[in-house]
Amino acid sequence: MNELLASTVSRAEVEDLFYLEADLLDSWRLDDWLELLTDDAAYYVPPNDKPDADARYTLFTIADDIVRLRERVIRLKDPNCHAEYPLSRTRRMIGNVRITGVDGDVISAAANFIIHRYRHNDLDRVFVGHYRYNLKRQGGRLKIAERRAILDAQQLGLLGSVSFIL
Amino acid sequence: MNYQPSGHDFVVENPDAKTFFVNREVFVSDDVFEREKRTIFDRCWVYVGHASEIKNPGDFKTRPVAGRPIIFCRDREGTVRALINCCRHRGALVCREREGNARQFYCMYHGWTYHPDGRLKSVPGEDAYGEAFDKSEMGLVPVPRLEAYRDFYFANFDREAVDLDSYLGKAKDYIDLVIDQSPSGKMQIISGTQEYDIRANWKLLVENSVDDYHLISTHSTWLNYMRNSGVNVTPPKGELLPTRGFGRDLGNGHLTTDNPNYRGRPVAKWISVYGEDAKADIDALRNELVERLGSARAARVADTNRNLAIFPNLVINDGSSVTVRHFYPVAPDRMHVTAWALGPVEETEAQRARRLHAFLTFYGPGGFATPDDVAALEAAQLGFAAWREVPWSDLSRGMAKAGDQQLATDEGHLRVFWRKWNELMETRA
What we know:
- The complex is a heterodimer.
- Chain A is of the alpha+beta class.
- Chain A has helices spanning 2-8, 11-26, 30-34, 66-77; strands at residues 37-45, 62-64, 89-103, 106-118, 125-138, 141-151.
- Chain A contains 4 helices and 6 strands.
- In chain B, helix 8 crosses helix 9.
- At the A-B interface, strand 2 and helix 4 of A face strand 14, helix 7, strand 20, helix 10 and helix 11 of B.
C-alpha cells in the first residue's frame, strides 16, 4: 500500500492542491476553482446529526452534483445572491493533510479545516471540521472528484446560512 | 391625508382607507418578547415532532419545545409521550443525547432513573425519605397537553386550551393535501436535520414563509437556476409570478398560499431538472394518484403547491419538495430554526433521491433560496433599529380586493397572522 501510494501521489502534491483550492475559494475565484474538479464531481455538507450519511437517503445541508455545483457558482457570482452580497470575507486554515487510501484510480485524502467568515454587519463565525476527498489524476493533474465538508459544531444553527463554499 | 397611522398600537387596521400597519416595536421589544412567550407560545398548540421520528418502543428525540427541554419518545407500550426533560429531584436533564433508544432515562447527577413512559423507576437511598415520599407522584412531568393530527404531534402548555382538532380547523384540509401524496396515507420525516439561526424576529419568518411578493426580487438567482435548467419561470404579461396563486385565511390564525405549480413536484409533476429518465416514473406516480383519488383530487395534490403556516410557529412548505420547519425566538432579534424533509413512506430510492435533490435546490441553509430569505430578514431586523423614527411596516397589499381574491403576492394571508397575534396579545396582556 505504501509503495502504491508513493508511486501514485505524494502528500506534498495533495497539500499543494488543497492550499491552492483554499486560496481560490478565499479569493472568490470560483471559475478557476471549478477547474480543479472532475466533470462528474460532487460536493457534500452532511447534517451534523448524520455526518456519515448518504445524500440519497438523508437530508443534507448541501449535496451538489457537478451540474448544480456549476449553477451554485453562477449564483454566487450574481450580485442578486443576497446572502453573499457584499461577499463574505473568508480565511481558511487547512491542516493535518493525509492520504487515506488508494482504490483503483481514486485517491482518498483527508484534512482538517478552520474557516473564519466575516460578513457585512455580522459577527465572526468560525466553521470547524474536516474534509474527506476523493481525488483522481486526469491529464497528469490531480483533480477533485468528491469533496465532503463535515462540520464539528453540535448546533449548526449558530453558524447561520452556509451560502459560501465550505 | 395621512397614509400612515400615529399612536402606539401594535397593529392598526383601517378598513376605510384599506390600510394595515404593524408597529416595528413588536420586532425589537424585550417586553413584547416576554409577553409573547406567555400569551402565545404557552397558550397555543406548538409542534413537537412527527410519529415517524420515533418508530420503535424506547425511541426518543430531545429538543426544545416552546423554550422547554422536551423528550419526545415512544414508551415500551408504544404510546407517544412528550416529557419535560428535568429531574424531579434537583432539576438536571435526565437525557442529554440528541436521539436514541432508551430502556430508561438516568439522571447523572444523583442517579434517579425513569421509565420511558416517565414513571420514576428507582431512587438511590430511597430510605432517606419520609413516609410521604411517593414515587408514583415523582415521575417526569409530561407536557400538560399532547395531541396529534395524522402523526403530527403538538403540545399545549395551557390545560384549558381547545382540543387540537378544533384548533387546526380548516388547516387540516391542507395537511391532508400534503399527506395525500402517499398511497398509504403515511408520510415520514426523512433522516437529517437542518438548523439555522436567523438574527431576526421570529414573526418575520412567518411572514416570509408565505409571502410570494418577494420571490422575484429576493430569489432571482433561484429563478435563473430554474431557467438555466429549462423550466419556464417567466411570468405572463401583467403578472408578478409564473402562475397566479392565492392567499387563504384558514381561521384561528392559520393561513396558506394555494398556487398552481410551475416549479415541479416530486409527486407528481415533472420538470426538466429531474431529467428525462424520471419522466416515466413521475407518470406512474401521477397514475397512482388518479386511480386512488380521482382526477380532480389528483390534480389538486400534484398540480398545486402550498406554504402552510400553522399559528404560531410551524410551517409546512409543500413546494419544490416538502419541508416541515418550526422556529422559536431566543431573543427579540434571534430565532432558532429547525427543518426536516417529509416524504411518502413508500418512496423508492430514486424517488427519495429526487425529492431530496429538489429540496436542496431551494430550501435550507445551503439552498439556492433560503440563505437569501435569511439575508432579507436580517436586513429588516437591522433596519428596525430605527423603529422609533420609521415605525410602521406596511401590510396593506390587496386590502382593496374582496377576501377570496387575495393573491399569494398580496398580503391578505399575512394579515390573518397579525390579527390573531394582536388578538392574543391584547386579550391576555
